[in-house]
Design a protein that fits this description.
The structure holds 2 protein chains of 2 kinds. By secondary structure, chain A is an all-alpha fold. Chain A has a single domain, classed as Helix Hairpins (Orthogonal Bundle), CATH 1.10.287.3510. The longest helix of chain A is centred in the last third of the chain and has 32 residues. Chain A starts with a helix and ends in a 13-residue tail after the last helix. Chain B has 21 helices and 3 strands. Chain B has one domain. Chain B is globular. Chain B is about 65% helix and about 0% strand. Chain B has a 3-stranded mixed sheet, sandwiched between helices. The interface between A and B is medium-sized, with 29 and 29 residues.
Chain lengths: ~110, ~550
């Protein structure tokens, strides 16, 4: 795994976890999406043996002996569709919440106690 | 010893999905939608039973396989229905079909929402799919299908709290999915495959590459979140209580079992060596769950919420059984899982029927007090369900409790066994208390005697579906033999994980691909160890005689 990928994934995980713990539901939803993007990046780095070079060539521009793994890219496509769907559904739910409660502060949307 | 190719394996997944598409086309006609959904549910049920029966045929390996698109194993997605998966899928599709039957005569407003029935069917497809799939990434996809469709149904629920519970669940379940994806990525880097059989094969060599154990542990944590085991339980009572009745019946009884299925798979075929540590943790979590679930169920003043908390406790019993880990304990866990699904879904739907008798559709015990006074039939059903849950003799709950106690005595962990029995008494207390409160009290004086016929033509839900489920509980209690035999077969198959691995990989071996050294030998016609006959479930062996 390329160092750059590792650092980028780490930063995105940090950002995502910080955001998802916020009280504002919209910011938390963004954190949710950033976390899934971080996992997708991790998947990409799992299959990219040659780091930042294009999938089918090596550093000299010749056809690579060990091309990048195409399976993970298919997996990422599926994972992106799923996380995108969840995110859209979540934003829809938050939109209805904001209309019903006139706020998106999770501390004020607390009718479930008891 | 290749597993039999069987296109019926596709049935429980593809039929509900097809039905969902059909329901979307029929969105103008709600009545027809519900009927089509019920037919699809019953057909899926039939297909899952066909698969289970094919597994039980004499001389078969007991594993049915379907390779999607005809791709050979390491390249394509494979659906694998071994005895465990087939049994779980039968359980799931029967309860889903009962839920759809309840929908037919349910008067909740949210059921008229055009995407409700398609979402219900998608949940059923996701449930069967996550049991049958032999590929970890497809498992994730089916799990998400199930989660998202249940979120949609809870968010549109009649109870105004559904929206809040749905948001909460999307976040928490999202964290579970995240861990699952991390685990998948880690396993893929380590072993270069997504097929469960190949991963089991790689684990069986005894080598543990750097990421293998963390990945398997991430899987287990994700499963614990999905099945609401105690430290990760806080979403469950809210999400389940606010769900519409038929959905609640399915969520609380079979959807939580997906995580348990994953845990059984994981401890039996991946982390066989590390099993002891994981099992100890499971026993502790299970015991905490039993008491937490039981005690909170006692202090809850809402009949549906009480049953949701009760699920926490019952999952605790199952975890303790898995934690004991002997073959007999796995038999007990499987019997418990199967019986609990029927009891809990039946009780929940009955609660829904009773709640539909009051105009508010509220399951608050204060509103329900005495509301079942005249309903003799429902009262008897509820009492039978409650006693079955508590484990009183003629009903199926008794079988689960006996098997559990017997297996606990078998591994001689007396302290845990004592705590389990004490926790079982809590079930008795909260079920009888609720039954008395609903059916034995005098109804409160009607306050609106002056203008009584204001909501006179109020329709209540039909008790047909819960009556069938409770009848199944009684039958499973009296004729418990087949289920016990089936569970013994299943546990015997789980105990030798090479059957699962080799039946999927045999085709690959024949075509000349090599397997890692030191793993299961799939080349020869392996002896299928016959199921040990008549495990002494009911016969208590007194030591020293």
């Amino acid at each position: 795994m390329n160092t750059l990928f590792a650092i980028a994934t780490g930063i995105m995980f940090g950002m995502g976890i910080f955001q998802i713990l916020r009280r504002d539901l919209i910011k938390a939803a963004m954190g949710f999406y950033i976390l899934f993007a971080a996992v997708n990046l991790l998947f990409l780095s799992v299959g990219a043996y040659d780091g930042l070079i294009a999938p089918y060539v090596d550093a000299a521009g010749q056809t690579s002996a060990q091309p990048s793994d195409p399976l993970v890219q298919a997996l990422i496509l599926t994972a992106i569709v799923i996380s995108f769907g969840s995110y859209a559904l979540l934003l829809g739910l938050i939109a209805v919440t904001s209309r019903r409660f006139r706020t998106v502060d999770s501390d004020e949307v607390d009718h479930l106690k008891g | 010893m290749a597993g039999a190719e069987n296109p019926w394996v596709l049935g429980p997944i593809i039929i509900p999905l097809f039905g969902a598409a059909l329901c979307l086309l029929l969105s103008q006609n709600n009545r027809l939608q519900r009927i089509v959904a019920l037919i699809a549910g019953l057909a899926a049920c039939l297909a899952s039973i066909v698969v289970l029966l094919a597994n039980l045929e004499a001389g078969s390996v007991g594993v049915q396989i379907y390779r999607l698109g005809g791709w050979a194993t390491p390249f394509g997605i494979v659906l694998v229905a071994d005895k465990l998966a087939a049994l779980f899928c039968v359980m799931g599709s029967i309860v889903v079909a009962a839920g759809l039957l309840y929908c037919l005569q349910c008067h909740d407003k949210c059921l008229e929402y055009p995407v409700f029935m398609p979402a219900f069917l998608c949940m059923g497809a996701g449930l069967s799919g996550s049991f049958y799939t032999g590929d970890i990434f497809t498992f994730f996809v089916f799990l998400e299908l199930m989660v998202m469709s249940s979120v949609v149904m809870v968010a549109v629920a009649d109870s105004s709290l559904g929206l809040e519970a749905a948001i909460k669940y999307v976040f928490i379940s999202g964290m579970g999915s995240l861990l699952l994806l991390l685990g998948i990525a880690a396993l893929y880097t380590t072993f270069g495959t997504l097929t469960m059989a190949q991963i089991a094969q790689a684990f069986s060599t005894g080598e543990r590459p750097l990421l293998a154990v963390p990945a398997a542990l991430m899987f287990i944590i994700a499963f614990l979140i999905k099945s609401a085991v105690v430290p990760f339980h806080f979403w469950q009572p809210d999400f389940h209580t606010t769900a519409p009745t038929p959905v609640h019946g399915v969520l609380s009884s079979v959807v939580v079992k997906v995580g348990i299925y994953g845990i059984i798979r994981n401890t039996s075929s991946y982390l066989v060596q590390e099993g002891d540590l994981i099992r100890t943790i499971l026993i502790v979590l299970g015991l905490v769950g039993i008491f937490f679930g039981g005690l909170t169920a006692l202090r809850t003043w809402n009949a549906k919420r009480m049953l949701a908390y009760s699920t926490l406790g019952q999952v605790g019993f199952i975890l303790v059984a898995i934690g004991w880990g002997s073959q007999l304990a796995i038999v007990a866990a499987i019997i418990y899982i199967f019986n609990h699904a029927f009891i809990k879904s039946g009780l929940l739907m009955l609660t829904g029927v009773i709640a539909s008798h009051n105009a508010k559709h509220s399951a608050d015990l204060k509103d329900l007090a005495g509301s079942g006074k005249g309903l003799k039939f429902i009262s008897v059903l509820y009492l039978v369900g409650g006693l079955a849950l508590a484990g009183v003799p003629p009903f199926n709950g008794f079988m689960s409790k006996v098997a559990l106690v017997r297996s606990g005595a078998g591994v001689e962990s007396w302290i845990v066994l004592g705590l389990v029995v004490a926790g079982g008494l809590l079930t008795m207390i909260y079920m009888t208390r609720t039954w008395q409160w609903i059916f034995q009290q005098e109804p409160p004086e009607a306050e609106d005697t002056g203008h009584a016929p204001a909501h006179a033509p109020h329709k209540s839900d039909s008790p047909l579906a819960p009556a069938l489920l409770i009848a199944a509980c009684v039958l499973l209690g009296i004729f418990a033999g087949p289920l016990v035999t089936l569970s013994e077969d299943t546990a015997a198959q789980i105990a030798s994980p090479e059957i699962y691995a080799c039946s999927v990989l045999a085709q690959m071996v024949e075509s000349g691909m090599s397997l890692p050294e030191g793993s299961y030998d799939c080349t020869g016609g392996m002896e299928i160890s016959a199921a040990p006959t008549a495990l002494p479930v009911l016969v208590m062996e007194v030591p020293g005689r």
